[in-house]
Amino acid sequence: MWCGVISLFPDMFRAITEHGITRRAIESGLLQLECWNPRDFAKNRHKTVDDRPYGGGPGMVMQVEPLRDAIQAAKKVAALQGDLPQTQTRVIYLSPQGRKIDQRAICEFAKEQRLIFLAGRYEGIDERLLTLEVDEEWSLGDYVLSGGELAIMVMIDAITRWLPGSLGHEDSAEQDSFTQGLLDYPHYTRPAVVDGLKVPSVLLGGDHKAIARWRLKQQLGRTWERRKDLLEALHLDEKSGALLQEFIDEQKVNERGMDHE
């Protein structure tokens, strides 16, 4: 996959090009990442890329021309990647007004050959650029960051996990939280006892069928406890429904036991 980034702070992306899974994906050729700074396309003497908003108000707004020229430069390079025409390179703007990113969207992005990400700053970007150049707006959540760079890095990291060969174990991404619409199950490692807290015995017995059943029950239970909204969007089969009810019944028994202590 090839990713282009339009950002006033391209050095920030060293956080993912020099560390972790994304660094390994770049070194192995699974991921390419190139950055363009809109200031390099500014035509004024001071290389400014923003101006005061029409209608007044606080802050500054990023201008159309330098951003548009940077996007066009990225698209020319993108046209050399893969076998799709330049017009099929999706331009993504990270914005609080965008559609909220979820695991399903990440999996779809991972199927693309190339993507261009646009990072906003200040009070935002001239609306006309969004009309002319941006295909989609996406958001990490209902809060505001100082700029789009961190959001883009989060997206690229999440997408990279779904590139075949990027993780050390083929099943790692498949078992992540949200992949099946559920939260993840609890994880344990050595030692078997920490401050009196023991690893569940089922994980120590080597019965892989029993372990798989326990893990699914924990996923269902955790989602029921912490994110009922996720469960409401799922259609549980008979087996999953029974496991969830088993988890709920066990919790009620545990609560009654605590009340008697």
How is this structure best described in words?
The mean pLDDT is 91. The longest helix is centred in the C-terminal third of the chain and has 23 residues, at 238-260. The strands form 3 sheets. This protein has a 5-stranded parallel sheet. Helix content is 38%, strand content 15%. α7 (208-226) crosses α9. The N and C termini lie far apart (57 Å). The chain has 261 residues and is an alpha/beta fold. It is elongated and about 75 Å long. The protein has helices at 14-17, 20-27, 64-78, 103-109, 127-133, 149-160, 208-226, 228-232, 238-260, and strands at residues 2-6, 32-36, 50-51, 61-62, 90-100, 114-119, 136-139, 193-194, 197-198.
Count of DSSP-assigned helices:
9
- Rounded to the nearest angstrom, the distance between the terminal CA atoms is 57 Å
Return Rg in Å. Answer: 23 Å
Give the strand order, joined by hyphens, for the main sheet.
Answer: 2-1-6-5-7
Poorly predicted residue ranges: none
Please count the beta strands (DSSP E, at least 2 residues each).
9
Structural class: alpha/beta
The largest β sheet comes out as: 5 strands, parallel
Portion of residues in beta strands equals 5-15%
Could you say which overall geometry the principal axes of the C-alpha atoms support?
A: elongated
- Average the pLDDT over all residues and give the rounded result: 91
Secondary-structure element order, N to C: EHHEEEHEHEHEHEEHHH
Query: Level of helix content?
Result: 25-40%
Task: Briefly characterize the structure.
The chain is an alpha/beta fold and 261 residues long. It has helices spanning 14-17, 20-27, 64-78, 103-109, 127-133, 149-160, 208-226, 228-232, 238-260; strands at residues 2-6, 32-36, 50-51, 61-62, 90-100, 114-119, 136-139, 193-194, 197-198. Strand 5, helix 4 and strand 6 form a beta-alpha-beta unit.
